Amino acid sequence: MEFVVDKDGLTSGISLSERFTAGKTTMPILSGVKFSAYGSTLELSATDLEMGIECRVPAQIMEEGDAVISTKALSEILRKLPKGQVHFKCEKNRVNVESGDFHLIIPALESDDFPEVVPRETSPLIKLPKEVLKNMIRQTIFARAEDSIARPVLTGELLELKGGRFHVVALDGFRIAWRWEELEGSDFSVVVPGKALLELSRALSDGEDSLEIHVGGNRVIFATENITISSRLLEGKFIDYEQVVEIEPRVTVVANTDLLLSSIERAFVVAREGSKNNLIKFDIESNCIKISTESDVGSVYEKVECSTSGEDLIVAFNARFFIEALRSVEKPEVEMKFAGEVGPCVIRPVGVENHVNFILPVRLRSDG
Question: Which residues of the chain are in CATH 3.10.150.10 domains?
Fold first, then answer.
């Protein structure tokens, strides 16, 4: 294997691939990155068996071939090299790297035992702008369960196409974050680990390029022109989110998103010292919400003007849940429908139907 590649493109590709290598493993080959030089492309592959990546970088290939290289030292050295071309030549179990007057020799492993990163037999299901998927993940990923031994499926996100709508949903038993877009394609439903979707979001560069979603075996594949990311799927039954978010509101509130968010963030500073529930109280009256909390470090009281319809209500929530929901809103105003003291709140940006947050309240002691 011998090739010449641009230093910046290679550095970027290695940095991306390294996030998918196995940290602690009994298989040394999984701690390296597979270099595959064919045609006019250098493909960098990495996997920890749970998820993997193939990253393609333009290169001048003099001799085709494959090798697995530990990039721990290589990536740091590349970042310190000046801009320009880097020459790689693999001979037996070592790689010679040259850039100007710089010379480096590093060991290499045979690629025969490197596992398949992307199944070759997959079915393309949908195609959408990568920026759309990236945004849908950002607006929902926070609501997944961080750790659920009883229900591992809740640590992932549901990706589902049905009836011409593509849904991305996360929930942890106390809240739901749901986004959907109109999209044509074959119906499917998979649950993807949250870690894989976070890495996908980081890997997707800004722009309007399209992304395809494939499924093959027990894996999901996200493919763009330059990268392909695969992940195992989570098994288990997901909650019927569409039924859950249908509530009978006792009071509806329309508020300025930034003003409400800022007020809750200030209250959270005190609330987080009080209990694991980060409890804040909403006292909803005519055209205002009084936000309050208290803990050992003090107490907070603030009034936020808003538009209300329905009855007066006192209800408590986890401040962090509300903050994360409101940060995902991209509209200046937000509508909140409250089902009562022990009923959920459904949050939507004003004028937007395809972005929903559902949050269960914290029961106040006075509720019995």
Answer: 2-109, 123-243, 245-367
**Nearest in space to 245 (alpha carbons), one of 138, 188, 171, 312:** 171
Distance, in Å, from the CA atom of 83 to the CA atom of 95, rounded to the nearest integer, reads 21
- Please give the structure tokens belonging to residue 64: 């085709």
The number of residues in the chain equals 368
Q: What is the pLDDT of residues 275-302, one digit of tens each?
A: 778 999 999 999 999 999 998 889 999 9
**In a 10 Å sphere around its CB, with 0-12 CB exposed, 13-18 middle and 19+ buried, how is residue 52 labelled?**
buried
Homologous superfamily in CATH for domain 2-109:
DNA Polymerase III, subunit A, domain 2 (3.10.150.10)
Give yes or no for a contact between 167 and 178, defined as CB atoms under 8 angstroms apart: yes
Contact 67, 109 (CB under 8 A): yes
- The Cα 204–Cα 221 span in angstroms is 14
As a whole number of angstroms, the distance between CA 68 and CA 45 comes to 9
pTM: 0.92
Question: CATH assignment of 123-243?
Answer: 3.10.150.10
Report the distance separating Cα 354 and Cα 360, nearest Å: 20
Q: Could you give the residue ranges of the DSSP H alpha helices within 139-274?
A: 194-203, 241-244, 257-271
Task: Determine the Cα–Cα distance for residues 48 and 30; give it in Å rounded to an integer.
Answer: 6
CATH label, 245-367, candidates 3.10.150.10, 3.40.50.720, 3.20.20.10, 3.20.20.70? 3.10.150.10
